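thought: user wants a sequence for this fold. calling inverse folding tool.
action: design(structure=
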């Protein structure tokens, strides 16, 4: 299948919450800004991440589900969607080797990476780590020789990101394309740019604070409070009005629901 020669890579994490979605979105947008046609994919039936992928890549994201589809159909779906693209970026769920059971890689990131012969960029949540991060990366890289770890991104590293990259290389690990600061560092940077946070409570019947320039809706479990949210007519109207006025709105997970 000629289209399987389309350059592609998988962005996978050591575990859920490592930061792989953030890294994948940044990579998609960076490649798009270089003039490349980027085709994004998301493993599983998830509908939230593909919406983000579509915005970042500028093309509709497609789902790949090894558990439901099997190898032949996954390869065919990839080939059809990536046919007109210059590069494909595949975002994943959970950790690289998380699967349907302890003795199989069925349903895992690693399985589909093998099927597509795609190299893996491993995202590591390095908060609270030092040299142990190198041991972790080496373990992931040697766990299954059929899976190719092409590089590592250390996330939430705090200070001295250059030192992290140097440590990775000197320890015999794979190249580190970069690092990402911790959330607290990001908040500090936003504060330095003049961002002021104005929290409000949906459960208390509150709405968007007056004078807000942007809206952030965090994750959670809104279905637990569906009755309360359904009765919050004012907030729904205010969010719709904010959207129509062009206010930047960022929502994640439950907040997007």
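)
observation: tool returned 257 residues.
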């Amino acid at each position: 299948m000629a289209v399987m020669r389309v350059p592609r890579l998988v962005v996978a994490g050591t575990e859920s919450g490592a930061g792989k979605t953030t890294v994948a979105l940044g990579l998609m947008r960076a490649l798009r800004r270089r003039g490349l046609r980027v085709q994004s994919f998301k493993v599983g039936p998830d509908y939230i991440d593909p919406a983000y992928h579509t915005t970042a890549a500028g093309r509709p994201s497609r789902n790949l589900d090894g558990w439901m589809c099997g190898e032949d159909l996954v390869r065919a779906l990839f080939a059809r969607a990536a046919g007109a693209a210059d590069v494909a970026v595949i975002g994943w769920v959970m950790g690289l080797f998380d699967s349907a059971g302890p003795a199989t890689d069925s349903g895992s990131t690693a399985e589909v990476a093998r099927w597509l012969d795609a190299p893996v960029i491993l995202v590591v949540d390095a908060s609270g780590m030092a040299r142990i991060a190198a041991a972790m990366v080496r373990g992931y890289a040697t766990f299954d020789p059929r899976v190719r770890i092409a590089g590592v991104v250390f996330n939430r590293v705090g200070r001295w990101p250059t030192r992290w990259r140097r440590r990775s290389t000197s320890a015999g690990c794979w190249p580190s394309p970069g690092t990402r600061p911790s959330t607290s560092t990001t908040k500090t940077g936003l504060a330095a740019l003049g961002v002021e946070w104005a929290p409000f409570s949906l459960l208390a019947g509150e709405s968007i604070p007056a004078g807000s320039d942007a809206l952030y809706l965090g994750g959670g479990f809104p279905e637990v409070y569906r009755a309360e949210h359904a009765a919050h007519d004012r907030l729904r109207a205010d969010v719709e009005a904010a959207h129509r006025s062009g206010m930047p709105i960022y929502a994640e997970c439950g907040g997007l629901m």
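thought: summarizing for user.
answer: Here is the designed sequence. The beta strands are 8-13, 38-43, 62-64, 87-95, 120-125, 149-155, 178-180, 215-217, 249-251.
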